[in-house]
Automatic annotation (TrEMBL):
Family, as annotated: Belongs to the short-chain dehydrogenases/reductases (SDR) family.
Coiled-coil residue windows: none
Taxonomy, superkingdom: Bacteria
Enzyme class name: oxidoreductase
EC annotation from Swiss-Prot or TrEMBL: 1.1.1.47
Keyword annotations of the record: NAD, Oxidoreductase
Domain Ketoreductase residues, every copy: 4-184
Organism: Dyadobacter chenhuakuii
Name this protein carries in UniProt: Glucose 1-dehydrogenase
Record bears the keyword Isomerase: no
GO molecular function: glucose 1-dehydrogenase [NAD(P)+] activity
NCBIfam families reported for this sequence: PRK07231.1, PRK12826.1-2
Pfam assignment, any one: adh_short_C2
Amino acid sequence: MKDKVAFVTGAAKGMGEAAVRSFAQAGAAVIIADVDMDAANTLARELTSSGARATAVHCDVTKSEDVKAAVEKAVSLYGGLDFAFNNAGVQARNVFTADMTEQEYDRVMDINLKGVWLCMKYELIQMQKQGGGAIVNNSSIGGIVGGPGRAAYHASKHGVIGLTKSAAAEYAAKGIRINAVCPGTIDTPMVQQMFSQGDLSEEDSKKGAPIGRIGQPQEIADAVLWLCSPQSSFVIGQALTVDGGITIL
């Protein structure tokens, strides 16, 4: 991926951070887009000190002006945009559908679903100018199955897959490949917080996966880089499940 440019949201921690590191290791310049600028700047400094090209950019994916400016920053600094991993997302408290507040529902949908659409919107505008590119959206196994207490989250992640498939059909002939990844339980700060709060059981998560463990962020990053690479050139509009086998049971 030498001389290519990658754009990652929710990039300072977890799966986003792993993807940033992998893109940089593969030779791409990387925009580290996040709302946590302390963590984003720390990551950017570490990568640039080792010779990589990386820039931290503040980006609230629910705000059109933030997303537009972040994509434009990638183009102005590095000359274009070749790859995007739309990873920014949030969980919600474990609560049944009728007990959820409107504010909770809106927050999850704004970040997890509207945020992916806004990112795709501006990424696609740029990629069309260039004549190609690859986009990977982060859905979840929650985009494939349901789960009690997580209606808003699962609805948002189902929506990401719908966006992915529809946009993929629209832009494949323009040289832009769009796919999604559907991670299972991954060892990220968000999941660790769910473990500590009792919203998710680490033991049950391990037992529920045929592989017998939870996943690592790097395993998602590897899938993202493959979906962005020429090795997946005939893969269009797919939701690639990376879950240790949870959803095959």
